[in-house]
Design a protein that fits this description.
This protein is α+β, with helices and mostly antiparallel strands and 467 residues long. Helix content is 37%, strand content 23%. Strand 16 and strand 17 form a beta hairpin.
């Protein structure tokens, strides 16, 4: 596989150069742009033959400040003109200000102004917000008398990954003729692939109404209050759109400091044990083949980004993909558990982003969380001491109520796998500062933890042997 590594020298990735170019060629004279501020790179992905970047550009025009998003595409110099033609065909909507397509030939790149996207027609603007709100009101406020009238509606962008997915919060006010105006909110997701939308919707439907619990706990289980799951409110699967209940709460990733860390993380561990033992009719299952495929894809991406690491990867490859728990119970898995996928509100946990929910070994979810903590440490968002405390409290909380021990060999094996399949992969495919050093840190950890997997350590104390 030939990745876009050679394109990383493009001046389009130099934010100061880009700012100068945009000030001179991105806007029409009638826009009266007074200033282009410092540009931020919100997202990047290195793909075979191109680099995709999401930029946020602050501008001041006609005395008012605003933020404009652009998808940047960097390609080999010979492909720039073809890229510009492709983007112009995709630009079905006007830019919020300025040009919808901005060629940057000196940087062998071009920009496409949001809300245009190469693969999705995004819901955007007042008309889309009202249509979404009307459909959601018919689902939420159905009482036999017809849906309340939508008075106001808006869409707040939460996350956007160009050509892949879009997430927004829809807010609206309704008037039912008796109690005046009432506020409503929902989360709206759009996936570039309708099959992903179908999978997301099916997962949430399987969990049920989500109001009180994530499935029915099995007999004899004692834990904290069950984890909340947002309801699926509706879907337009042909266009990849799924509407989801908006739950209150703050992500755990924003609450990693302070005296309340221990009860919070122990509570998460106990509630996670209950989630794993709930009865939910999920049709997808974790398989060793899926795990091996993800690991191999990550190895390919790392080797393409850094060919000199190929020999090291060859030594590590046979040590991974061995984790399994053939004889243990199969639980309900989140599938991509990390702290920013857990909300907490008044001591009650909720899971979001359940697109990967499935049945499989409970150790997989715990390992996902542990591997993601190493990434937070590498990004300097959590200290080593805090990372170890979180791991300890979650594991001990889980073990305090779990009906069966999580096999240590399986847990550590999954951590090693996921450090490569998810965390090292991010550094191979994202433009991060000092990403080579951080990627190698993930490989170091995967190698060390894979060797620890055979040691006879109790699962609740696995955090003690993890580096």
């Amino acid at each position: 596989m030939t990745r876009a590594t050679g394109l990383e020298t493009s001046t389009a990735l130099d934010l100061d150069w880009l700012r100068t170019q945009m000030a001179s060629c991105a806007f029409w004279p009638r826009d009266q742009v007074e200033r282009v501020g410092p540009i931020e790179m919100l997202y990047s992905n290195l793909e075979p033959g191109r680099i995709i970047v999401l930029y946020r550009v602050p501008i001041r025009a006609r005395g008012a400040a605003r933020q404009v998003l652009y998808t940047g595409v960097v390609v080999p110099p010979a492909e720039v003109e073809s890229l510009v033609r492709t983007l112009r065909r995709a630009a079905r909507r006007r830019a919020p200000i300025g040009r919808a397509v901005i060629p940057l030939r000196d940087g062998h790149a071009a920009l496409l102004a949001y809300p245009n996207d190469l693969t999705m027609r995004l819901p955007e603007g007042l008309g889309s917000a009202r249509r979404l709100a009307s459909r959601l009101s018919r689902r939420i406020d159905r009482d036999g008398r017809g849906a309340p009238r939508v008075e106001e509606a808006s869409l707040e962008l939460l996350r956007y990954v160009p050509e892949r997915r879009w997430t927004a919060r829809c807010r609206w006010m309704v008037a039912d003729g008796t109690s005046g105006l009432g506020a409503r909110t929902a989360i709206v997701k759009q996936f570039a692939r309708p099959a992903r939308a179908q999978r997301c919707f099916a997962c949430l439907e399987a969990f049920g109404n989500g109001a009180d619990q994530a499935g029915r706990p099995r007999v004899g289980f004692v834990a904290d209050r069950p984890i909340r799951i947002p309801r699926a409110l509706g879907a337009t699967l042909a266009s990849g759109v799924v509407s989801i209940e908006s739950l209150p709460g703050r992500p755990l990733a924003s609450q990693l400091e302070g005296a309340g860390l221990e009860p919070l993380m122990r509570g998460l561990g106990r509630s996670l044990a209950g989630f794993h033992r709930s009865e939910v009719a999920l049709t997808r299952c974790w398989t060793p083949g899926d795990e091996r495929r993800q690991i191999d894809e990550a190895f390919d991406a790392i080797a393409a980004a850094y060919p000199d690491l190929a020999r090291r990867l060859d030594r590590l490859r046979p040590r991974l993909g061995r984790a399994t728990d053939r004889h243990g119970p199969k639980g309900v898995l989140h599938g991509s558990l990390r702290l920013n996928h857990v909300l907490v509100h008044r001591g009650r946990f909720a899971f979001v982003d359940l697109d990967g929910a499935r049945r499989g070994p409970p150790a997989y979810d715990i390992a996902n969380l542990m591997a993601s903590l190493y990434y937070l440490e590498a990004e300097e968002r959590v200290s080593r001491a805090a990372r170890r405390r979180i791991a300890r409290f979650v594991m001990e909380g889980y073990a305090s109520v779990a009906a069966e021990d999580v096999p240590t060999r399986t847990l550590l094996g999954f951590v090693a796998d996921l450090l490569v399949a998810k965390q090292a992969l991010k550094y191979a495919t994202r433009l991060r500062q000092d990403r080579r050093r951080r990627l190698e840190r993930m490989l170091d950890l995967a190698e060390e933890i894979s060797m620890l997997a055979s040691r006879p350590t109790a699962a609740a104390a696995a955090w003690k042997v993890m580096p």
